[in-house]
Amino acid sequence: MRPICAFVFALVLTSVQAALLRYLGGGAVSLALALPIIVYLGLQAGNVDGAVGAAGVGYVIDLMAGGPKGLMTFLAVALFLVSRVAGAALSVQGMAGFAVLSGAGTALYGLAALAFTRAIAPVESAPAYSLVWRVLVEAVLTGALSPLVLIAMRRLEGLYVREEQGLLR
């Protein structure tokens, strides 16, 4: 159930994000609000559910990005694995830790996408290295808004997760 909810939430979130950025940002800035969903899956979901959910969210990003097909899906699963390792190695608790991890994950995701696209694109259409600053601004803005995504994911998860009877809290 978790991968399906992550896929649907990412679809809704990227659609709203695209509509808002068209009217508010005018293309000057970008956001990646679906990436905190992947970070959340890396911290909370199991291995199989999280990887399938991350691939689904990556597919949604792939559809919206318009770049080489499969690149964003690959990077989404890689971000899931990095989030999983960071969650095990670091104490990521609370909204501030989630925001920092989401911002760092967004920066790594964007820089990797830029590097891979630059490596496979023809020289005349390859993205310039000056886009690094745009990626960093996107990472900061996504990290700043990621606590809202965290709250929404916790609420969404509360709708379909049942408590087991007889367990002590």
Summarize this, please?
The chain is mainly alpha-helical. 76% of the residues lie in helices and 0% in strands.
Give the termini distance in whole angstroms. 24 Å
Number of strands: 0
- The domain tally reads 1
Helical fraction: over 70%
- Helical element count? 6
Mean pLDDT: 83
The CATH class is identified as Mainly Alpha
- The stretches of 5 or more residues where confidence is low (pLDDT under 50) are none
Protein structure class: mainly alpha
Which term fits the overall shape? globular
CATH architecture: Orthogonal Bundle
Portion of residues in beta strands equals under 5%
Q: For the report, how would you describe the main beta sheet?
A: none
Topology order in helix (H) and strand (E) letters: HHHHHH
Radius of gyration: 16 Å
Q: What is the CATH fold-level name?
A: Arp2/3 complex 21 kDa subunit ARPC3
Structure description:
It is a single chain. By secondary structure, the protein is mostly helical. It has one domain: Arp2/3 complex 21 kDa subunit ARPC3, CATH 1.10.1760. Helices cover 76% and strands 0% of the residues. The chain is built from 6 helices and no strands. It has helices spanning 2-25, 35-44, 47-65, 71-89, 94-120, 131-160. Helix 2 (35-44) crosses helix 4 (71-89) and helix 5 packs across helix 6 (131-160). The longest helix is centred in the last third of the chain and has 30 residues, at 131-160. The relative contact order is 0.15. The mean pLDDT is 83.
